[in-house]
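Before a computer can learn anything about folding, someone has to put a protein's shape into writing. The three-dimensional part falls to structure tokens, numbers that each stand for a local backbone shape. The protein below has been through that process, and both of its lines are reproduced in full.
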Amino acid sequence: MTWLEGLQKALQYMEEHLDEKLETSEIAKQACLSSFHFQRTFSVLTDTTVGEYIRRRRLSCAGQELMNKELRVLDAALKYGYESPEAFTKAFRKQHGSTPSDIRNGKGKLTIYNPFSIQILLKGAEPMNVKIVEMEGFQAIGKKRSFSYKEGENFREIPRFWSEANGDGSTEALAAWNNGQIRGILGICTDTNSENKDMNYWIAAASTKEAQQGYDTITIPPSKWAIFAVHGAMPDSMQQTWKKIYGEWFPTSGYMQVASPQLEVYGEGNPHSANYYSEIWIPVERP
């Protein structure tokens, strides 16, 4: 199964099970990805989370069924996983701007979110600079925090994490300890076993030294890496490159991402400069 087929299968699975309890781990299995990698891929491609997409689709379906008088309000609430009509009405009004009763009585309008479909973008004007490199495993020293994808917590809190690390001298210390295979400060994205959080994020540096107090170590396994050059000011250039990787490169490359840490590598210089250079490292394999 190709990368494209896997994502489409996951979308179809969600659509067919909207009126059942959906676990992200089970959805990710349809795409042959870990829960972490599927959620990250999904959020980069769609600018929304898996949970938010499911919520929008459920409320869209509920609205259409209420408009056609196929369900009572209570039945719609129960069908689409709400514990009470009150909770359902609150979520329904937030999306549609009308109450379920209004819609069933022929009043108000619906805001419908149609199912996503994955399409290949054929673009040649701006080629991607990528190389495939095999590398032995290595150790990195850094600081770690856990984040959730819910309500965009990761998008809000990771930049704050960087601001804190830059302000308290952590990135300067890491730069001094950076004697490993990769030069630069690393943003490392990994899976987490926490029930409440979806990802671990490290601000780190490749180093053979022992971790000082307040820092931990992480071992990056041997991997075949797809390394993408990123040119331009942060954070826009990094975000746009992630989108091109998932929207353009993976669908046509023949590679699949591996359930292993992903790296953002930040070099020296002014990160807000139009000439700033950084990299994205993704572990890959041929299916």
